Amino acid sequence: MRRALLFELALFAVPSGGALMLWLGGLAPAWSVPLASAPALGRHIFRLVDLSTLIRRQHRLAPPFPRGLWGEVYRNIARYQQRGRKGRKRQIRFTRRFREAANAVPDALVILDKHHRIDWANPAAAQLLDIHWPEQDGQHFLDVFCHPELGDFLHDGEYLRPLDIAPTHNRALMISLRIAPFGERKRQRLVVGRDITKVYHLNMIRRDFVANASHELRTPLTVIGGFVENLLDAPNTPEPHRRPLTLMHNQAERMRSIIEDLLTLSRLEMHDSPADQHSVDVPEELRLILQEAQAIGDAGHRLDPLIDTGLLLLGNQPELRSAFSNLVFNAIKHTPAGTRVRIRWCQDKDGATFVVDDDGPGIAPEHLPRLTERFYRIDAARSRQSGGTGLGLAIVKHVLNRHDASLNISSELGQGTTFACHFPATRTLRRDAPAPHVDTTPPTPSRSANGEG
Questions:
Q1: Among the three residues 178, 198, 218, which one is the final residue of a domain in this structure?
Q2: Which residues are in the Histidine kinase domain (predicted)?
Q3: Are residues 331 and 294 in contact, defined by beta-carbon separation less than 8 angstroms?
Q4: Are residues 308 and 425 in the same domain?
């Protein structure tokens, strides 16, 4: 830079000396200065025109560069051009790798613009969604991939749960659609379609097997339990036989309880939402549940209820009673004597909350994510002793999902456990408010492939 500046100063000194000599030779300053400065001015104009032409034609600037400050300008522009070329090469490599990876993905990937028109789709989208890119580039997504439930799902923006549908072009498939906002201001959409046909059929087989096996087992078990109970009540039964008969009766009752819970889960899986919905008097249901809890809580549990008597809920009464009773009875069955159990039913800014909180021994963190799985037990021996089936929390989760609610579980060892059910404001009612009209038409059977809800 210093050399370039010295070179420019030297070039400036030459016309200055020439102008001085012309002035000393008798030429007026008005003519001597422009004449002496003309070569330098011409050089600058030439370089400006040359540089402008090179940039306009997108030519690559390469050495040799002119001397002086113009050389520095050329050199810096050449550096920017080189950086731009490297950046474009990186972008091209990244785009190529992205397309290669996207083309190798077995799931259908479709990018939509802010107007839900197709911007791009990978080859798997042609097979799963019947979307062919670039032939259908710019067409509206709903015009290409039609389904009655897809329009509301796309426009509502509630993308937390996938939509499981059978595409019209191939009813043998079952596709799980997920939509994620992305791009500038999250106005674009990424549609991911996954083939879950095998998983769906496996879940259907499992559900049908559980339902059929439970129905078939219930009748002989009822017969066996009835005969055992008659033998226990018979005065002629020998005393040595009463203990094994009692054990047989207890185990038969435990098996009956498991079968009833399995049948309940099968019924809950038939539809995404309950068909019969009306105003449920939750305070009255909790009063009855607490009476039953006091009857079974022979270990001296302390029940501490705090119930908003004016807060009702829109839903299915048997299902909600089953969910609430499961949480209350679990807190009593799986905690030691003297445990304090707090039951809360109150309204908050987001809707309604039902909380069962105890100060028992708590649950280790590694068990919390799996508590709502079927037959999952923290302590199998203690669960069998207390009569638990391992299905109670799975039923609770299914019931809450069908009522647009969520279950949050928190616990610390030695500090107790909290089960909190959060219901949206759209399902809350006040006792003095008129109940809204509810369509009780049975919904179309769900085809969800997620057996756990």
A1: 198
A2: 212-427
A3: no
A4: yes
Is residue 438 a part of any domain in this protein? no
Same domain (yes/no): 61, 186: no
Residue 436 belongs to some domain of the structure: no
Nearest to 200 by CA among 176, 179, 178: 176
Query: Whole-prediction pTM value?
Result: 0.56
Which pairs with CB-CB distance under 8 Å and at least 24 residues apart come from 75-84? 77/51
220 or 71, which is more confident: 220
Q: How many domains does the chain have?
A: 4
Q: What is the pLDDT of residue 276?
A: 74
383 and 414 both lie in a single domain = yes
Q: Could you tell me whether strands 351-358 and 406-412 are parallel, antiparallel, or unpaired per DSSP bridges? A: unpaired
Output Rg (C-alpha) for the chain, integer angstroms: 39
CA proximity to 106, closest of 198, 203, 201? 198
- Specify if 441 maps to a domain: no
138, exposed or middle or buried, with CB in 10 Å at 0-12, 13-18, 19+? exposed
Any idea what the CATH number is for the domain that residue 186 is in?
3.30.450.20
Q: DSSP class of residue 328?
A: H
Q: pLDDT, tens digit, for every residue of 307-366?
A: 998 999 998 888 899 899 989 988 888 888 878 899 999 998 889 999 999 888 888 888
Place of tokens 């339990």: 225
Buried b (16+ CB within 10 A) or exposed e, 140-165: ebeebbebeebeebbeeeeeeebbbb
Give the domain extent around 166.
105-198
Q: Give CA separation, 195 vs 201, 291, 367, in Å.
A: 12, 49, 31
Q: Which residue blocks in 57-196 are alpha helix, DSSP H?
A: 69-104, 123-128, 141-144, 150-156
- Provide the pLDDT confidence category of residue 420 given band limits of 50, 70 and 90: very high
Residue 268's H or E segment, with its range, is helix 239-269
Is 287 in the same domain as 314? Answer: yes
